[in-house]
Amino acid sequence: MTEPAEGPTKQTVPAWSRGWLEIRQLATGRGNCALIIAPDGTSYVVDVGESHREARSSTAPKPDGSRRPGEWAARYIARHLPEGGRDRIDYLIATHLHGDHIGEVGGENGVTGPASADGSYVLTGIPDLAQHLEIGMLVDRAFPSYDYPQSLEDPTVSNYRNFVQARVHGGGSVARIEVGATDQLAPRTDPQAFPGFSVRGLAANGVVWAGSGNHTRSLFPDLDQLPPDQYPTENMCSLALLFSYGAFRFYTGGDLPFATADGAESWRDIETPVARAAGPVDVAVLNHHGYVDADGPEFVRALRPQVFVGSGWDSCHPTIEVLARLLDRRLYPQDREVLVTNMMEENRIVNRRLDECGSDEGHIVIRVAPGGSTFEVNILDNSDEEDRLLKTFGPYQSGRARR
């Protein structure tokens, strides 16, 4: 790890330029949100979370509470999009339909945002971001019916569905993720320029890429074999993505769990087959923010990244058991860093090994050099909009675990 030199001039990371792959995990303190810029300039946003959890169990909003999280995210994303495209996102992807990923309505403290211009939905999370930035295509796990494993009707999902309906009526593009495919989320700006870059739909709704071509396999039981109270959960249905650029691999998988009801229902461990389908990667986002039901031993062993990224906002992000696994060299022997976007002091008091994390506050920026052979990771201050550089990790050689 290197520390930025001190001086009168603010240091930050260079702006994206052609040929670089840039992955920015935002630290809003309210949920998951990432901006990814492909080597040709195509932009991807994965989730725009807005949790309304009470302060006793969650981090403070960052930079502060003067704006809604969707507004802060839109401002951050706009200033880091490529020149000439700072009012548009090519792909906005919702990993699953929970408030800390799409924007909550109500919540523990009843906080909610203002109504949209037509009054049909509330501005929170993804709908809020879409008020500020044009969206090329919206992709989620459940469009158009939103009925798997059963009809989704809670206030947060209903609000998101109203937003989707308004978008469709306005001529906007919305699609269900195509598991196994690499053409659905293909580069748009200059599609032929960087053939070494791809985005694969790795999993969703219990369907997992089979490891070759576009072939998939379905791992959940047929619903007619289960009573409704034992259906797959929303987290289990999360979509996962695998970004590739040359030798570099990046995994992100929403809130996929490995918990199996204490071994009674092995099929509930959807995390393990998804991780095995992905294979070794260089950077992996923790499933379910590092919560107790996710990031199991086979996830760690299969992915064995050089960098784990945790999108934290809760007092259990990450838990003691998860962090112990992430750092366990018996699962794989190579060095690794664990970086978390936001962390509560209460968690640090309980989980003493959190001192072994390389960073516990700030935007996490992964910059992959042209061609994908090397990358570095930077931590940026999230207390304001200056994007001051706090720490740098690397450079790393991509593809270490596959050599």
UniProtKB/TrEMBL annotation:
InterPro entries: Competence_DNA_uptake, Metallo-B-lactamas, RibonucZ/Hydroxyglut_hydro. Residues 29-106 form the Metallo-beta-lactamase domain. Gene3D superfamilies: Ribonuclease Z/Hydroxyacylglutathione hydrolase-like (3.60.15.10). Residues 50-70 are annotated as: Disordered. Signal peptide: none annotated. This is Metallo-beta-lactamase domain-containing protein. It comes from Microlunatus endophyticus.
